[in-house]
Amino acid sequence: MTDQGIEIYRDGLDATLRLAIKGDEACFAELWRALNPRLERFLYAQGAMGDPPASDVASETWLQVVRDLPRFKGDYSGFRSWLYQIARNRMVDAARAKSRRPIASVDIDEMDRWATLEDLAVGVANRTEIKAIIEKIRGLPAAQSEVLMLRIVADLSVDETARAMKKSPNAIRVLAHRALTSLREEIGSDGQ
Amino acid sequence: MKGLWNRLRNGKALWSAYRNVSTLTGDDLANETIFTHLREFAAAPTGPVSLPAGLIREFNASQKRARGRKKFRFGVGALFATIVLFPSLAYAGALPTSVARVVQRIFNVVSVPIQIPSVATQSGQSDERGQTAPTSVQHGSDSESQTPGAEATETPSQETSSKTSETGNSSSEPESTSSNTLSTEIKTQITTPDGVSGPSGSSDEGDLVRGDLVQGDLVQGTVSGSVGVDTSGSD
Asked: What is the ipTM of this complex?
């Protein structure tokens, strides 16, 4: 999609969002279809696997969105930041609940069950590389890992990421820069 | 010397960090080949999925709650405006008379009756508790000087004249039937508490009243002037 096409698409989603806030069910469904796949993948990649699974955390996130949607003020970009902010909070809640009633931890191989979801058109060969890079990113400090996931998997801009993480855009840039430097070093050392 | 060196080194590190931040555009991630597969994973197309039924239900319930909240806020605002805001403005004279009259009517329905000064002055009506409006009090002792605008209020003032004569406020009565009624009441008033009718002996005003009542044609002018004195004497 060209830049102009993306612009038109986002303008359309702005209008869709306005109608959804007013109570249009079809428009809300369209928003959900546009945003939910990336949200679930972000939650998977960020580590919300196992109990509760990422889809449950995503459902909790959307329920919270639905409850507060009539009071939301902002455009589509702000809505995406808000959505991921709620997702982060729900993820923290899920992690706390999990720590109160510990279960067997689930490792990265849990991603194999994505194939059963039949919603990914990713080649099997690439899947191994995806697992490897996600493992490396998850090995970074939490803030750096989160910035990378939000920027790459959730496809948020610097400003949107800053709003979602309640930090300044410069702080996000610095975190991304440090994360990238660390990843390069790690991959370089692995290659040697 | 060592401290100075450390300061310089820290300053250099700070300057380096500042240069790094200022040169970061946020696009360094976009061109990074490390994340190619991760981007492919994130943007992979999904099959047709439909919104879960539970989410639809919650969405509709949330919209219903939002409408309820909106109605509740509107109701509270309207109630506040009816009970507090508009009566206050009307009482302060900040509203036009026609609006103030409507406000008074509504307020009399939803709460205790109030008398808005601007409305009372305009209409010259006395309120339901029998208080005489300011304009009618001024013209009460002289039937000739009634304003033309007060014609519509003649009937209520005649009705209340018998009551006001007891309290010292009187209005003029041009008709003989009314004067007969008045004279009867005045006779009752000048009757002494022990039941003996007639002058008290020491009151010149009492004599004047009795004499005027006998003549009949002088009732109107004299009664209105002397009733007050007699009433104060009986008190």
From this structure: 0.77
